[in-house]
């Protein structure tokens, strides 16, 4: 008998036999078996539906929150999309592009001016400290030690040099080795 559907001619009601491949043998299912199989499948399907429905009912609040979050995310995505579209419209507008370039150029000029002012301020400070140091050196050479000591104390305060600090003062890079030797002989 070939695989497939075969109708048996008997005195009984019409019975449909189906040959099904059941590993490793072929099984023959007759109509009552098929009806039983269909009933079992329908029963299991109803049980699964019932379980899913009871799960959905028991977790209704969770699903409500989840769908609410999804709705909020969709709304926020639309808002972001609208914002991006507005930004693209602004960027594609020619006069705005020109204005942005002008503002950027002006910012660069102002930044350079600020750097120059800061450097001039630093140079002014270094020149002032150098003049005070020259004054102290001149006082030492001429023998006016009280004036030299007072000048050194003022320089220490200005340069924030502390006697307790074991590290080399940051100002040492400003002073030559000869000047350091002269200052080391000066009384505190």
UniProtKB/TrEMBL annotation:
Coiled coil: none annotated. Residues 41-120 form the Centromere/kinetochore protein zw10 N-terminal domain. InterPro entries: Zw10_N. It comes from the Eukaryota. GO terms for biological process: endoplasmic reticulum to Golgi vesicle-mediated transport; mitotic spindle assembly checkpoint signaling. GO terms for cellular component: cytoplasm; nucleus; RZZ complex. This is Centromere/kinetochore protein zw10 N-terminal domain-containing protein. The gene is Vigan.03G236100.
